[in-house]
């Protein structure tokens, strides 16, 4: 038995002016068949799981490319062709495989291909028509007909923040093994819920809905249930949340169940979405209760393709005269270089942020002391350790501490601050440039957390995003995108069977 595994992952914000090029993969994570020789991160956890399980069964494992880049604009043609070509070349060189498992993102867009994952899977299928092909996807994916037609199995992460990558990898492996052995015949179907938004799964109605999906998955004949949340800052025709169901040789059941769950999710639309505060309202919350207050600078989340150098929240806090707070991570390689040259202990005037474009706001001139410079640090996202690049700790008058780095990455964990020497327990406020991934670890140190609808490349104003390619109306841009809920059915899409027929 031969297993082929690979990873190609980046999330594309089509409104971002910074292209994703080979340098983005090189500085974040690029390995040519050796990723499982290193500790796992979020997008390599699956490879570790698959290798371990396969080797326990004495299977031959062929590990190909692992390429991960922080989200930005569309991937350049040359970069995409080189990376996807390497995977296909490795697959050809090893003579194909019985089972092919890929960890992809699901929201990768290149200059010339809107559905990169569908393209990769179609080329894999053409090259190995008889193989069992499975793919694990981030839940912020654009689930497409092409993906279903070219694969046997698709499993999404179900949690946001993503702390279930290993569990999903295990599920996919087990289903692929059973499929190849002829024990099951997967049939997939999805339903477009006509929703474009973000959904935090750790509390409230969304947590309950994830549990409802898990309960549904235990029904006879149901193999897997997952929800593609979609990635809202992508102007592609398949943007939006889609419910996916896999059954054992029951395509009609898959379609009906996908629609039933999808409409159930739509009915919960108001309950499963989060309220986001304008900057002014969020700052009014500061000091209203004892302990650390956490503010999420949602509009400048580099994990969604924002630059990471926006100054809107910092400028407002300084204008109010707030003190004793921490904020980061600011992506500003120029400031990092200046501080490296000056050295720890230096007192400088630096021009921070606001350099990438209009969405980043104004650069701010600050008198700072360089408190520390660290290279090679990481922060945990689940069990994986994500790189931080070179990190500089700057201190302003009033016990204001800022983290600046040269690698675009969002804040995942309090250790991003703590390990350089910033003691969050002594702060009144910490501002994290992140959407939701910070939530779990920071909720362990604060019960005073607010999502801030700040301006920037990932501002959560979903009704205003200029989605020109989506054909069907969607909520919240339209109050009722199903004109007649009783008759206006967006028919669920179903997939190929293991016999290569389209259901």
Record the SSE blueprint:
Blueprint: E1 2-9, H1 22-28, E2 29-32, H2 45-56, E3 60-68, H3 77-93, E4 99-104, H4 116-127, E5 132-137, H5 145-150, E6 153-156, H6 165-180, E7 186-192, H7 204-216, E8 222-228, E9 242-248, H8 251-267, H9 269-272, H10 279-285, E10 293-297, H11 312-320, E11 325-331, H12 333-342, E12 347-352, E13 364-375, E14 378-381, E15 384-387, E16 390-396, E17 400-405, H13 415-418, E18 429-432, H14 439-443, E19 449-452, E20 493-494
Parallel strand pairs: 1-3, 1-4, 4-5, 5-6, 10-18, 10-19, 11-17, 11-18
Antiparallel strand pairs: 2-3, 7-9, 7-20, 8-9, 12-13, 13-16, 14-15, 16-17
Helix pairs in contact: 2-6, 3-4
Tell me what the structure shows.
This protein is α/β, with parallel strands linked by helices. The chain has 2 domains: 2-272, Response regulator (Rossmann fold, 3-Layer(aba) Sandwich); 279-459, no CATH class. It has 14 helices and 20 strands. It has helices spanning 22-28, 45-56, 77-93, 116-127, 145-150, 165-180, 204-216, 251-267, 269-272, 279-285, 312-320, 333-342, 415-418, 439-443, and strands spanning 2-9, 29-32, 60-68, 99-104, 132-137, 153-156, 186-192, 222-228, 242-248, 293-297, 325-331, 347-352, 364-375, 378-381, 384-387, 390-396, 400-405, 429-432, 449-452, 493-494. An 8-stranded mixed beta sheet has the order 12-13-16-17-11-18-10-19. A hairpin with a 2-residue loop joins β14 and β15. α2 packs across α6 (165-180) and α3 (77-93) runs parallel beside α4 (116-127).
